[in-house]
């Protein structure tokens, strides 16, 4: 069932007709209530879907076709505008339902705070959970200008939930001095600037673990993804992020869910950001869904 049965908009390319036949469920989280710079990521999910219609269904990276994966696009969760706390509760409840039904949750954001309720639902299901976080920003603040519900806090919350030693951040190139000090002192695994090489070193340590992957599109250099709320110069290329996805697909671990967040289409009239995002989602579906 879709959130809105009268919905007549686009779904991600080759979405199955029913929820019941799907192994994975794509769901949108149209919220940007706590962003500190440029809003607009609430429009990301629908634009990623629209861009997916230009994709090839076959991936030469995975050597697989989308018809080989059963997934259903459920549309966007109808989050209440401006109410962050209630929105997060709704996401957590929905993801818990997906897990109870044996589905692979694949979330489209929306701001990065939306990963926090997902982490909570995943940790209840998988007590040995590890989180792989690919991002430009550390997201390790306890609060932002007095607000504990902020897009700059989800990874700090994750560390406090599952233990900092179970959190692995890659590509980080922005944050407060205190955030980097916390990462060093707490024992979490934070790798600055690069993604592929440190990820390759870490993956053997996660052998057999249940892993959740969260990707912020701003890990890419703005030359490759200008359509995001808090762009940071000095990022990785689209090719490098695809390479990281391939390594995750080949690793001996169990990926149990993923999200892609912070796509803000208004800042990219060329649509290269949403085009790239839709390709990353395709590779998640083809490479990760059957790794549970």
UniProtKB/TrEMBL annotation:
PROSITE patterns cross-referenced by the UniProt entry: ARGINASE_1, ARGINASE_2
Keywords noted in UniProt: Hydrolase, Metal-binding
GO molecular function annotations of the record: agmatinase activity
Enzyme class: hydrolase
InterPro entries the record matches: Agmatinase-rel, Ureohydrolase, Ureohydrolase_dom_sf, Ureohydrolase_Mn_BS
EC number(s) stated in the UniProt entry for this protein: 3.5.3.11
PANTHER family: ARGINASE/AGMATINASE, GUANIDINO ACID HYDROLASE, MITOCHONDRIAL
NCBIfam families named in the record: agmatinase (TIGR01230)
Family of this protein: Belongs to the arginase family. Agmatinase subfamily.
Protein name: Agmatinase
Organism: Shouchella hunanensis
Gene name per UniProt: speB
